[in-house]
Amino acid sequence: MRKNLANIVLMVGALLAILFFMFHLHQTTKEQVLSRFSENQLQIAQQVATQIESYFRSRFQELRWFSSLTLLRDTDR
If you compute the radius of gyration of the chain from its CA atoms, what whole number of angstroms results? Predict the structure, then answer.
């Protein structure tokens, strides 16, 4: 009987160790995925901000060009 009890205790201990290891592995993987997701979101946000800045810069240059045309036209009168 004592041999069976020792085997049961050993099996329960091994099962608990495996469950703890699986939980730890799950948590570690979850943190890595969240970290990579955050880094990816930051990179996308920076790319979009750069594109928006470029868009507004080119529109501003077009406005300056149009205003210079109107100034040239007005001085011809």
Answer: 33
Q: In this structure, what token pair is assigned to residue 36?
A: 């990579």
Q: pTM here?
A: 0.61
Q: Which H helix or E strand runs over 33?
A: helix 2-76
Give the H or E element holding residue 48. Answer: helix 2-76
Residue with tokens 């955050």: 38
Cα distances from 70 to residues 56, 62, 65, 67, in angstroms, run 21, 13, 9, 5
DSSP state of 77: -
Confidence of residue 2 (pLDDT cuts 50, 70, 90): confident
Strands (E), the chain: none
